[in-house]
User: Fold this.
Amino acid sequence: MGVTIRDVAKAAGCSPMAVSKVLHGRGVTVRVSEARAAEIRRIADELNYIPNQIARNLRGERRYNIGLVTDSLGPIAIGSRYLAHLYDGMQAACFERGYSLTICPRLHADHKRFIADGRFDGIVWGKYHLDPETSRIANRIGLKIVHLHVPPSLAPDDTHDYFCADNKQALLLGVQHLYDLGHRKIDFGVDADNIGSAEDTDRWEAFLAACDTVGIPRGGRYEMQYTDKDATQWLTDKNRGTAIVLRTENLASHIYGAAEKLGIRIPEDISVVGFDSTEFCDTLTPRLTAIHQPVRDLVYEAVSMLIKRIEGEELPNRTHLFPCNFDVRESTGPPPAQ
Assistant:
């Protein structure tokens, strides 16, 4: 049996009503000071108190609400259209089946109670790892979860579904294209705010494997903020490659900007390959060659699977890999003559 409000009250030396007031906002006649409330929350966290979703959800009635949880959100109308395609796929799957969609840009320190308080029937889990304790809580209360951008090799268990681009196939498309143009020294660029995610790990390992497959030395890894400064550091590195594959297409605009200031031409002096290949690639000059990830289809299928599980359909949990395509535009060419 889990920890109850009475257990928290006993440990905190207060009444169950005070605990209910602090943790659930109940009890208009109960007054609790800020300091006392903070102490109650601290003790509840230490005891790992989780509200009983089933009791709070009108005996299991669905909310018809899906939550999207991600580590960060950027602008939708500026730069890459990745998020626009992601939201489009999610809302299409939700609205077709009568579900609402709630976007949660970031989980706060109270995330265990956040996912267990009954507001969601299911969650689409974004970039970062789901810790084992949160996964255990979700399984205990029957909260359904699907994960985005988690490959088979990094799936922590088989209790959820995982949806991911086939990064091994995708990165080989990019590296093979550059190899066929004559490049023998190719680097990999990753946005610093994605470092350590399953997607970052998988794409980096896929890039290294692609280098091995085509038979060239493994290229360098460059971690970049979304600034021209970090792009300049790569461009001025004497050991850099003649081409770079970027984890996202957003990084390309900074490579472009820094290259222009340095008088470095694309693709005559360096070749650049992005990832996602949304409409944003056609707004750059030269137009960005990129790996096309089927974001909308991937997310649509993820949410559809989530709703099937919410509605009781019995299917085996598994990882769903989506093949990628390659869109050749104008940012790649033969390496400069030595």
